[in-house]
Amino acid sequence: MPSDKKTKKDEQTSRKAEEDTRNELEALREELARKNEALQAAMAQLNAAETKTQQEQRPKAQRSSRSNRKLVRWDTDIDIQLMLAIHCACNEKGTKIPWKKVAEELGPEFTEGAIVQHLGELRNEREELNKPVPTMPKRGAAIPTRVQEEHVKKKPTPSSPPSASKRKSRDPSTGRDSGDGFYALDKKRQQTPSRG
User: Fold this and answer.
1) Which residue windows does the record flag with biased composition (Basic and acidic residues) (predicted)?
2) Torsion region of 50: left, alpha or beta (phi above 0 gives left; psi -120 to 50 gives alpha)
3) What is the maximum alpha-carbon separation in the chain?
4) For a surface tag, which of 41, 116, 183, 185 has the fewest beta carbons within 10 Å of its beta carbon?
5) Alpha carbon 190 to chain centroid distance?
6) Angle between helices 112-128 and 76-93 (to 10 degrees)
7) What's the distance, Cα to Cα, between the start and end of the chain in Å?
8) Nearest to 43 by CA among 32, 51, 33, 53
9) Where does residue 107 fall: left (phi above 0), alpha (psi -120 to 50 degrees), or beta otherwise?
10) pTM value?
């Protein structure tokens, strides 16, 4: 019987060893499967990176709209030319630029007249340096605006009496309207004695 005990013990030991070996083998298979999945994911990323690099290295086909144009490099000189061209185009079309609003946007120290004067100075400087300058229409050659057209329509007709178009003003001494239709400075100067 002692041999039976040894045999049972040996069988139990060998079964346990086989089980341990199977468990170890199963753990190794699972680890191998995880590593294989990680390797495949890394390979996919590497392939994607290679594809992207190859696409970036390939020359891009230009669109037809881009092939015929030249990009402009904007600088101060072109900015000045742009301002003068806008001013010229508005004058040609008879469009009144709201210089008062432009001056307000620039700041309290700017005025309408200063802006127009500065544009004229810029134009003259560019002409002296033989740089391109947009041509300005001659004064009075602009297309009439709506306000100018309305003013032309409202001119007095020749049938109306001439005194109706004169402005009336008040006599400072009496506070009443002057009888001749306008206040003449020459008459007032004639009444006061000159200092000599």
Assistant:
1) 1-37, 170-189
2) alpha
3) 163
4) 185
5) 62
6) 120
7) 163
8) 51
9) left
10) 0.40
